[in-house]
């Protein structure tokens, strides 16, 4: 069974640059027993990543315990979009170490991947590590709270 102790649904999305990898990751995730919500895209035809990255981030931000996976060509752009949504801590990860750190130290709730820059096998291992790693809390909790306090200051403007 994939997922840490507190993970609910897995919200997934991609643009055309991440479409092929999303299909492979979905197959892997479905074998792991978690409920998956797919916001598209559903073909390799060009789409605008901000639309889908927003849907993924919004679905994570407005529900408890869900995590998101967003895949575009490189990952940078979708991470930028997702992190505009209050409550989101999206992490662009390119290896197992960054996936572990994103969850354990930063309580990341959206994993962003670059479909054109990492291989399928590595992507599966990154997703596995991201989903299986729990937030450590402690001194990391204090730091994540500071991130959220910065966000809150801007929301009050």
Give an account of the 3D structure:
- With about 160 residues, the chain is an alpha/beta fold.
- It has a single domain, classed as Sugar-phosphate isomerase, RpiB/LacA/LacB (Ribose 5-phosphate Isomerase B, Chain: A).
- The chain contains 6 helices and 5 strands; from the N terminus they run βαβαβαβαβαα.
- It has a 5-stranded parallel β-sheet with strand order 2-1-3-5-4, sandwiched between helices.
- The longest helix is centred in the last third of the chain and has 17 residues.
- It starts with 9 loop residues before the first strand and ends with a helix.
* Helix and strand pattern: EHEHEHEHEHH
Percent helix among the residues?
40-55%
Summed over residues and divided by their number, the pLDDT gives a mean of: 94
Distance between the termini: 43 Å
- Low-confidence sequence ranges: none
The total count of strands amounts to 5
The strand order across the widest sheet is 2-1-3-5-4
Name the CATH superfamily assignment. Answer: Sugar-phosphate isomerase, RpiB/LacA/LacB
Reported CATH architecture? 3-Layer(aba) Sandwich
Rg value: 14 Å
CATH class assignment: Alpha Beta
Number of domains: 1
